[in-house]
Amino acid sequence: MRISSILNQAEARLRAITADRLGVAEGDLHPTLSLVDELAIDSLDLAELAASVEEELAITLPDTALDAVRTYADLVGVVLAAVEARRAREADTGLPPVRIVARISRAAVPGPPLERSGELTPYFAQTLVEDAQRLGVGSRLEVTIITPSPATIGSVRQRLAPLGARGIEIRVEHAPLRTRLRDTSAA
Q1: Where do the domains of the chain lie?
Q2: Of 60, 102, 114, 157, whose CB count within 10 A is highest?
Q3: What is the DSSP code (8-state) at residue 95?
Q4: Using CA atoms, how far apart are residues 41 and 179, in angstroms rounded to an integer?
Q5: Rounded to an integer, what distance in angstroms lies between the CA atom of residue 8 and that of residue 16?
Q6: First and final CA of the chain: distance in angstroms?
Q7: Which residue from 153, 177, 147 is spatially nearest to 86, judged by alpha carbons?
Q8: Packing angle of the helix pair 72-93, 43-57 (nearest 10 deg)
Q9: Which residues is 118 bridged to in the sheet?
């Protein structure tokens, strides 16, 4: 598939997600539209929109890039750059990105576990390591792999191995087939 076709499809999906999340018509989303001034979105709205886009397009949007988003064109630029980066990684490795959902908890700490989801990049793995280390010895990291690949469990365990030496329990599993099929059909 040509890169221009991939980017056009990604922009169309971004437009639909953005319109739905912000409650506007797709036709109202034009390059100069100020998300901040005209639609009055704040950083929380942008973070929620970014999470939806990341999940739908199987990409990771850096917080630093999102900080500079003011217009719809800015958002499109950040998203398409992430789509291009994902495609380049796939071309370099020949493998699709590993998508995971991680839950970090500690029995002695009340409240819900910390949940993160995304593509398991070195940055994302480091974030998980830091989150688990903050909870300390006795914490538990549960990772569910969304990307269907038999070799993935071992590679994910290897990336998170430093935690085991620090007394943090690690459990890695594949998502049920139904979840994987739903996720890959959206990519």
Answers
A1: 3-93, 99-186
A2: 102
A3: S
A4: 31
A5: 12
A6: 14
A7: 147
A8: 30
A9: 100
Would the pTM of this model clear 0.70, i.e. be above it? no
Q: What is the CATH number of domain 3-93?
A: 1.10.1200.10
CA distances to 57, 83, 110, 119, 121 from 143, rounded to whole Å, are 20, 24, 20, 12, 14
pLDDT per residue over 92-108, tens digit each? Answer: 666 666 788 899 988 67
CB 84 within 8 A of CB 3: yes
Q: What percent of the chain has pLDDT over 90?
A: 29
Q: Which two tokens stand for residue 89?
A: 């990684």
Q: Which of 120, 39, 119 is nearest to 74 (CA)?
A: 39
Q: Which tokens sit at 158?
A: 């290897």
